[in-house]
Design brief:
Layout: E1 2-10, E2 13-22, E3 25-33, E4 36-51, E5 57-73, E6 76-89, E7 92-107, E8 112-119, E9 126-132, E10 137-143, E11 148-155
Antiparallel strand pairs: 1-2, 2-4, 3-4, 4-5, 5-6, 6-7, 7-8, 8-11, 9-10
């Protein structure tokens, strides 16, 4: 939690600026079963500023990340990773959901892993993030790669 009140020179005029920021985050990991695990992360960014007693501007961004790990057999792994970004910025709201799938099979005798990844399952085109300073808000829009499948083979020489 941070709060700042100070005077700043803006366009050659000394102005009173108030800025508040709250950024809590949490993480939960559960590995209660041999064949299943969950990891969840949450982050909130709450930003509020006011210049010279004008109406305050508020921006929030929430990030939820959940990863589910399944081990149906000793040699097999299935992972599902989800990320949700929720933005509230002045009069704009946006939400992005990203999901990735991973399948891995291990050949124990030859020490070879065969892995297939499906990234950006829902083919999301852009990601929007919000940041702020004491008298400015910034919204960044990133162009993303399209949905893709990647196959990997890993060798171990131990």
């Amino acid at each position: 939690i941070s709060q700042t009140e100070r005077q700043q020179l803006i366009n050659d005029v000394l102005a009173n600026v108030e800025y508040q920021s709250i950024r809590p985050d949490a993480k939960l990991t559960i590995d209660a079963l041999d064949w299943f695990g969950v990891e969840y992360k949450y982050q909130l960014s709450y930003l509020r500023n006011s210049v010279e007693n004008q109406l305050p501007q508020v921006a929030t961004q929430q990030t939820h990340q959940a990863e589910f790990s399944f081990y149906p057999t000793e040699k097999t792994y299935l992972g599902i990773r989800n990320e949700i970004y929720v933005n509230r910025f002045i009069n704009q709201n946006s939400q992005n959901l990203f999901s990735d799938l991973t399948f891995r099979y291990t050949f124990t005798k030859s020490k070879v892993d065969l892995e297939a990844n499906w990234n950006n399952v829902f083919n999301i085109k852009t990601l929007t993030t919000v940041s702020a300073s004491s008298f400015a808000y910034s919204e960044s829009i990133y162009q993303l790669r399209p949905s893709q499948v990647l196959v990997k083979v890993r060798f171990s020489f131990k």
